[in-house]
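Why should sequence recovery work at all? Because a backbone constrains its sequence more than one might expect. Tight turns favour small or flexible residues, buried strands favour hydrophobic ones, and helices have their own preferences. The token representation captures these environments compactly. In the example below, the structure is given first.
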């Protein structure tokens, strides 16, 4: 067997060598069909189809790049399965869904959005004709609300199962019962790692098929001493590789967008200082990067330059890059984790797990032997890194999941069939949050508000804000604000022009609210006929604004379907602030000193983010609510609105008297159940208090 592998590898290496030597000629002549037939999965195509025919659920394991994501959908389509319904393939990441759909459309020689399409939140690129549909796992989860048996699909491929994203984990539970009801549905679960037996057991001891892989040895080199600054270390390492190493592209793993941008800048800067340095094509990749720039990472760099891709963990298994010989691993990634101190999820930088680290180094051995530089010590790898990452379902807020499952009629969430059940107190805390928002009643049932909230693909607080804006007479205004909050940064601040861009931004600022500042920007853009020129002049991302407009249109559609009244409060911005307060009173802070706030509920100190309209202005607000927290050296509140302290007392009195939870697990659980009991009592008290106030 080993011998076979060796021969196969050698053949492949020779092939690559030819490819390298005759680069331009050969790759031009190599058709997409030939490329498809060269993938490892092609060699087992018929075997695979046989297993799929004979079983309703199968698990497929294969190295990254073996062709799972791009080929399986096409094989099933070629076999005629799409006669009975679409083939859906879920991805935990938006970028992967888009990029892979584009690739498959190219391979099938069709326009993207026709036979092959994709769907991600707020962006549906499919049509009547679509037979192969790539989508985020969140989209399929929402589709199951409308169509519990997913009747439009003949097959579902749950890709990247090893990622254990929150939505994938919930889908596992749901699909397990869908396949028991629909014997005609094919369910394929794919994973890049070997922990597949767990998936097989979960679905009732179903077959596991392993795609024979091609991998080359990777030399793993550790850093000798602890690295203080991983960006700096990565920059140095990559320049050294570039100046002294052999041919081959480079892949650098960074935790997030900010670090990626700095790394790219610094590599270019430092290389410019080296005399006669050969050229290097430095390319970033992260989820918010515009898609035309994303596509670049797959292309060969022009003029035979070496390519250096700086990526988040998206390049770990979701996207496959060919020709990588060097990997530089910072050892960190960003993860969403529930932070009990602030009572909500926060994106934070964490060390990767050993499993991540091994996937990362594996990226260097796809097309030939490679080298991986780990920017941490051997001892850190062995002693500090967890073996695998904790699944998202066990570390994040579950409010949206609870809302969704409740509306699917799952009565007792503690008994739902999860592969790895979330801690009970997570579920109870999320239920508590939904109760606070008024989405659940005292018995844990969905309220009318809760049922309406499910209709919107938004976080619970945002959907609540949109729904209550109707009766407050400002639904059109809140619609714009919610849309603005659903896209990443609107303002840009180019290097060297910081002062100009800050001055431009200041003109939009409404001193008491970032939310209103957003509303203001949108109104002005609209009165300038949605002009791109206007955006450029005011240091505003035109693409982001166009996205806002699309999101707004889609949310407006849902509001119209729900027969919601659309009206604007005109210039009465107090109403809008009150509406924001009504949905975010659980994220409030009280002024303590100059620029210093404390969380009204937990007493934790918090700071205004320097980008806030309220920051450093003459105006100080005694009470504010915030949209989110950014954790760096301090806790920064981002997107803030000044509110009246009386509104807070009126809108959420029961909330502020709830005490912090205890320390140990058992104690926490006791407190969580206690919470549920206390809620009922406090709710009554609050009602009485309000009645009393009204009589004065
Ligand atoms: P797997 O899912 O098993 O990791 P894929 O199906 O994603 O493998 O990749 C198979 C091949 O298709 C790889 O060689 C990869 O480079 C190529 N490929 C995938 N997406 C693109 C794309 N957007 N552009 C160019 N090539 C791509
Ligand atoms: Mg894949």
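From this structural description, the recovered sequence reads:
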């Amino acid at each position: 067997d080993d011998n076979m592998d060796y021969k196969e590898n050698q053949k492949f290496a020779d092939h690559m060598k030819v490819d390298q030597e005759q680069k331009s000629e050969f790759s031009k002549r190599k058709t997409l069909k030939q490329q498809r037939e060269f993938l490892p999965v092609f060699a087992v195509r018929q075997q695979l189809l046989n297993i799929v025919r004979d079983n309703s659920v199968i698990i497929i394991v294969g190295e990254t790049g073996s062709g799972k994501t791009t080929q399986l959908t096409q094989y099933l389509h070629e076999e005629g399965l799409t006669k009975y319904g679409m083939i859906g393939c879920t991805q935990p990441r938006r970028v992967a869904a888009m990029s892979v759909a584009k690739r498959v459309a190219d391979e099938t020689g069709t326009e993207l959005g026709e036979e092959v399409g994709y769907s991600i939140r707020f962006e549906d690129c499919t049509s009547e004709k679509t037979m192969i549909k790539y989508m985020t796992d969140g989209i399929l989860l929402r589709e199951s609300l409308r169509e519990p048996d997913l009747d439009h699909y003949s097959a579902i491929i749950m890709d990247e199962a090893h990622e254990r994203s929150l939505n994938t984990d919930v889908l596992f539970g749901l699909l397990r019962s869908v396949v028991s009801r629909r014997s005609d549905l094919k369910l394929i679960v794919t994973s890049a790692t070997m922990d597949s037996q767990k998936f097989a057991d979960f679905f009732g001891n179903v077959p596991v098929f392993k795609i024979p892989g091609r991998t080359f040895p990777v030399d793993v080199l550790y850093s000798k001493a602890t690295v203080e600054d991983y960006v700096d270390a990565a920059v140095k390492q990559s320049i050294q590789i570039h100046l002294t190493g052999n041919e081959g592209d480079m892949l650098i793993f960074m935790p997030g967008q900010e670090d990626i941008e700095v790394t790219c800048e610094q590599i270019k800067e430092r290389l410019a200082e080296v005399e006669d340095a050969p050229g290097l094509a430095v390319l970033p990749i992260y989820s918010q990067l515009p898609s035309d720039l994303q596509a670049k990472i797959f292309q060969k760099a022009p003029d035979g330059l070496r390519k250096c891709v700086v990526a988040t963990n998206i390049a770990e298994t979701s996207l496959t890059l060919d020709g990588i010989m060097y990997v530089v691993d910072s050892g960190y990634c960003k993860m969403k984790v529930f932070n009990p101190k602030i009572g909500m999820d926060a994106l934070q930088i964490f060390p990767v797990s050993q499993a991540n680290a091994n996937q990362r180094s594996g990226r260097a051995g796809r097309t030939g032997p490679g080298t991986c530089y780990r920017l941490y010590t051997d001892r850190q790898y062995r002693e500090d890194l967890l073996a695998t990452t904790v699944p998202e379902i066990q570390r994040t807020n579950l409010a949206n999941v609870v809302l969704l499952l409740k509306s699917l009629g799952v009565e007792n969430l503690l008994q739902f069939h999860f592969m790895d059940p979330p801690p009970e107190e997570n579920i109870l805390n999320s239920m508590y949050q939904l109760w606070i928002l008024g989405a659940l009643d005292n018995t844990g049932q969905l309220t009318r508000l809760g049922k309406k909230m499910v209709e919107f693909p938004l976080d619970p607080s945002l959907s609540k804000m949109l729904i209550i804006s109707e009766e407050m007479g400002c639904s059109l205004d809140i619609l714009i604000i919610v849309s603005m909050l659903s896209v990443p940064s609107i303002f840009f601040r180019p290097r060297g022009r910081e002062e100009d861009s800050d001055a431009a931004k200041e003109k939009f600022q409404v001193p008491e609210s970032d939310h209103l500042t957003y509303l203001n920007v949108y109104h002005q853009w609209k009165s300038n006929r949605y002009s791109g020129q206007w955006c450029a002049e005011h240091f505003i991302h035109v693409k982001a604004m166009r996205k806002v407009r699309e999101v707004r249109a889609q949310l407006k559609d849902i509001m119209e379907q729900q027969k919601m009244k659309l009206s604007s409060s005109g210039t009465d911005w107090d109403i809008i602030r009150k509406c924001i307060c009504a949905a975010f009173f659980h994220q409030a802070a009280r002024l303590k000193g100059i620029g210093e706030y404390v969380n009204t509920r937990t007493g934790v100190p918090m700071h205004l983010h320097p980008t806030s309209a309220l920051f450093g202005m003459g105006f100080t607000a005694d009470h504010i609510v915030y949209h989110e927290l950014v954790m760096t050296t301090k806790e920064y509140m981002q997107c803030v609105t000044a509110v009246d302290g009386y509104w807070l007392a009126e809108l959420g009195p029961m909330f502020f008297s709830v005490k912090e939870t205890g320390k140990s697990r058992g104690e926490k659980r006791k407190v969580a159940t206690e919470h549920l009991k206390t809620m009922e009592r406090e709710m009554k008290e609050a009602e009485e208090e309000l009645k009393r106030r009204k009589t004065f």
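A few observations help interpret the result. The first strand starts at residue 57 and ends at 61.
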